[in-house]
Structure formats: structure tokens, C-alpha cells
Design goal:
single chain, alpha/beta
Length: 465
């Protein structure tokens, strides 16, 4: 079934007729979608944009951008998505294979010709997504519309999306997590959707009260914020999904009761989409420490003792460069090396960290994620991040830890470091430990390790060492 058929079905169904897509300012009923999307089609034709062109979209969590995405999907456009610029120099350049760039201006759109367009013909019905770049330079990932649909159907089945669902999306739909794992699944069944652009604590609480969602896809950073604000458990959520970066076991256990034991840690990537997750009804220990079961058709295996590989029926087609030339195509057998280090126990897989996030100290290979797990076991720490800093220590490459505290904790960086002597071998003890209010995040919600390494100006609160 094509996106065109899907949209026609949900728009004509009596169960979805009055369901809505809202961003808090603009609201659209599913019954209106066909007409609204046709208006966008006419707008694009008026500006000379056809399905022979690949376009780039400045994609916000707004109603107009949601309609534009649906129009491009229904017509089979090839398009690249990017989050909106939040500051000078922060927006990635438009890929040279995109002829036009479309941006939202209030409730309408603006079409600009890409001055760097290289005239290269690009395949139709493809989605081009940039990886987060959390570990370095980002890549452009290619997905087919057909496999996006398959991935979305997998998520519908996993979390039980129905037309009665009310899905809140406070994570960017310009990334695979918000787009492929919640927005598209909700669209497939005609569920009501609340889009939140650049959400914060007050916005989420206000919109939660008004929209009354029963499923949410969030980041660990938002869980940290909500932990301070949720005074009583929320009984209305059937699933409260977190992804984008590692959520500490301590934060998971502290937050889970506040969503009535429905917190789920989903595993996935820009390349593979949604890959594995626990079920909402699984026990707390399983949900807090593992990624649960692979979604339908997905296989996971561990090689060389710890390297995690994934075979996904709806995975990516490969990577292209800014000119649209193939850098690397996905393997024919669809096995993909995730770059994560994992362990398996009784069929359950736990993610231990990134294979490329390690240092050599006193002749030992130290996974930074191992240090983070030990830090997270210290009472009073909500979450932590450890980076290999510039410089040398007596053990080798210098290590710096950043910790966010649970509400009420008064730990200092010095106190945390002293406790590390009881938890870690001497060569793995961080050279510096700092307490900060929150960890820096990329637009995707993943930890911005480059900001930690570079010591950027996001550190508005003095470090507590």
C-alpha cells in the first residue's frame, strides 16, 4: 500500500474523521487532509517544483511542515529533511543534489532555488536523512518510501497504535526517531498527533493537560526535566518511549513510577529505524537494563564477543555524499554493523556503549560507557557522560566526566571522584569530574559529545568540581 492509499484510507474512515494533527496554534482534522495536501501540490506546481526534482525541507514540529511532509510522501518526491536553523552557522548546507529548498514562513511556505544545485538527477521516492553526528561528522542516509512504510507498520504493531491513540511528539520530526518511529505510525492509523516545536518543561505540561496523550516519544533529557515536575503518577500513558541516547538505569527507575510503569527504552538508528524495544507490560528490571526484543523481521547478533550487528527488512539503502553520489551501499544481505558494544543474557541484549568511545589507559582498553554506568550507580546521580578530553594523564589519554544530579542531591564533582576509587580500577578513574545542570544535546536528542569535548559556551552554569 502506498502513502497515497494510506492517506485516502485514514481521511475517509469514520473512526479518524474528526481526529486531529495540531501544533498548539494550528489544528487540522484528518477529514481535511486531502484538500489541504492538494493545495500544497498546487503551490509546488506554481513554483515549478515537480516530482522530478529533489527538494530540501527546513522541517519544524509544526502543522504546516507536517502537511508538507505528507504532500511530498503522497506524490513520491525525493526529499531531504533538516531541522530549522537555531543560530548562525548551525544549519547544515543544503545537499547539492536538491534543486529547491522549502522553508516554513508562518502558515505558508517559501521556495528557494539552491544556488549550489548540481543538476544531478535523483531517484524518486527517497528520503535523505543526516545522521546526528554525535560521534563526529554526520552522514547522509538514503531510505526508500516503501521501507519507511514497513518500518512504521512495525512500530504500529509493537506499541499498539490505533485510531484512538493520542500521540505527543516533543522530539524533532526532522530525525528518524520522531519521524519514522512516531509521526508515520500515528499517521498510518489516523491517530491524533500533538507536535511540539522546541519543547520545554512548561510547554510539555501545558500541552499534556490540554491534549491528554496516551503515547509519548521523548529523550532522556526530557525525562530528567519531567522528573522534577511530575508530582503524581500519570495513569493515562499506555507507552512512554525514550530513545536518542542512553538513559541511565537510575534515571529509568526513578522516572518509571511517574508514568505508571510504562517507560520503554527503544533501540534504533537513522540507518535502521526502530530496531528493538521491550513491551509496555514487561517487568521493570527488563525494561531498565535491556533493549527487549527485536521488532518483526529484525535480527540482532553479537560478533567478536561484543560487536552488535543488525539485519533489518526495512533498513537503509546506503550513504551518499553532498553531490548525491554513493559513498557506500548497504550490504546485499542487509547486515549492518551498528558500532555499539553489547552483551547478551538469555536472549536479551544490553547495550554497553559505543565501540569508538574508548581510550587506552595504562595498557587497558577502557570503554567510556563502563565508567558512565559506574557513575550512574552513585546515589544522587541522574545521568552522566564521560569523554576523552584533550591532554594526557599519568594513565594515558585524559578522561573527564560530567554528571547531572537527581533532585535534592548536593554531590560535588570532588565527592563523586572520590567515590570512583571504590567503583573503578585505578586506570579508569576520571581525571576530572564536573557537576552540571544538563547534558548538551543535538537536535535529534542525542548527547552532543563534541560540545563536551570542546567545552562550548552551553556551560552557562559554573562547573562544580
Amino acid at each position: 500500500m502506498s502513502f497515497n492509499s494510506v492517506l485516502d484510507c485514514v481521511a475517509s474512515s469514520e473512526t479518524t474523521w474528526n481526529n486531529i494533527i495540531t501544533d498548539g496554534s494550528s489544528t487540522y482534522r484528518y477529514a481535511e487532509l486531502s484538500v489541504l495536501i492538494s493545495d500544497i501540490d498546487a503551490f509546488l506546481v506554481k513554483h515549478g517544483v515537480t516530482t522530478d526534482d529533489c527538494v530540501s525541507i527546513e522541517c519544524l514540529n509544526t502543522g504546516p511542515c507536517a502537511l508538507l511532509l505528507l504532500a511530498l510522501l503522497r506524490s513520491g518526491f525525493g526529499f531531504a529533511m533538516a531541522p530549522a536553523a537555531s543560530g548562525i552557522g548551525e544549519l547544515k548546507p543544503t545537499p547539492r543534489f536538491c534543486r529547491y529548498r522549502i522553508s516554513a514562513v508562518g502558515s505558508s511556505f517559501q521556495v528557494d532555488v539552491n544556488p549550489d544545485y548540481n543538476g544531478r538527477p535523483t531517484a524518486k521516492a527517497k528520503l535523505y536523512l543526516r545522521t546526528s553526528g554525535s560521534m563526529g561528522a554526520s552522514k547522509i542516509v538514503v531510505h526508500s518510501h516503501e521501507k519507511l512504510l514497513g518500518n512504521a507498520r512495525n512500530v504500529v504493531k509493537k506499541y499498539g497504535f490505533t485510531s484512538a491513540s493520542r500521540a505527543v511528539i516533543p522530539v524533532p520530526i526532522a530525525h528518524m526517531y520522531g519521524f519514522g518511529a512516531e509521526f508515520l505510525p500515528a499517521i498510518l492509523v489516523g491517530a491524533s498527533i500533538d507536535l511540539q516545536e522546541k519543547t520545554n518543561l512548561l510547554k510539555y505540561l501545558d500541552r499534556e493537560k490540554r491534549f491528554q496523550p496516551d503515547i509519548a516519544f521523548v529523550t532522556p533529557n526530557l525525562c530528567e526535566m519531567l522528573l522534577k515536575a511530575f508530582k503524581t503518577p500519570r495513569a493515562g500513558y499506555r507507552a512512554f518511549v525514550t530513545s536518542g541516547q542512553r538513559i541511565s538505569e537510575e534515571l529509568f527507575r526513578a522516572f518509571d513510577p511517574l508514568v505508571s510503569g510504562r517507560l520503554i527504552n527503544q533501540y534504533g538508528s537513522t540507518e535502521m529505524g526502530a530496531t528493538a524495544a521491550c513491551d509496555p507490560g514487561d517487568g521493570l528490571d527488563e525494561r531498565a537494563t535491556t533493549i527487549g526484543r527485536p521488532l518483526d523481521g529484525v535480527e540482532l547478533r553479537i560478533e567478536s564477543a561484543s560487536d552488535l550487528y543488525c539485519q533489518h527488512p526495512y533498513g537503509f539503502e546506503g550513504y551518499v555524499d553532498e553531490n548525491g553520489e554513493w559513498l557506500q551501499k548497504a550490504q546485499e544481505d542487509n547486515w549492518y554493523r551498528t558500532g555499539d558494544v553489547a552483551a547478551q543474557d538469555g536472549g536479551r541484549i544490553s547495550i554497553l556503549g559505543r565501540a569508538d568511545a574508548s581510550v587506552n589507559r595504562s595498557g587497558y582498553l577502557v570503554l567510556l560507557a563502563d565508567i558512565e554506568r559506574m557513575l550512574d550507580k552513585i546515589d544522587g546521580i541522574a545521568t552522566s557522560a564521560v569523554v576523552a578530553a584533550n591532554g594526557e594523564s599519568k594513565h594515558g589519554e585524559s578522561i573527564t566526566a560530567f554528571c547531572v544530579l537527581l533532585p535534592g542531591s548536593t554531590l560535588s564533582g570532588a565527592q563523586i571522584r572520590r567515590r570512583c576509587f571504590d567503583l573503578l580500577p585505578h586506570y579508569a578513574i576520571p581525571d576530572e569530574v564536573h557537576v552540571i545542570e544538563e547534558l548538551p544535546a543535538l537536535p535529534s536528542g542525542k548527547l552532543d559529545r563534541q560540545a563536551l569535548i570542546g567545552g562550548k559556551s552551553w556551560l552557562t552554569t559554573p562547573l562544580s568540581s
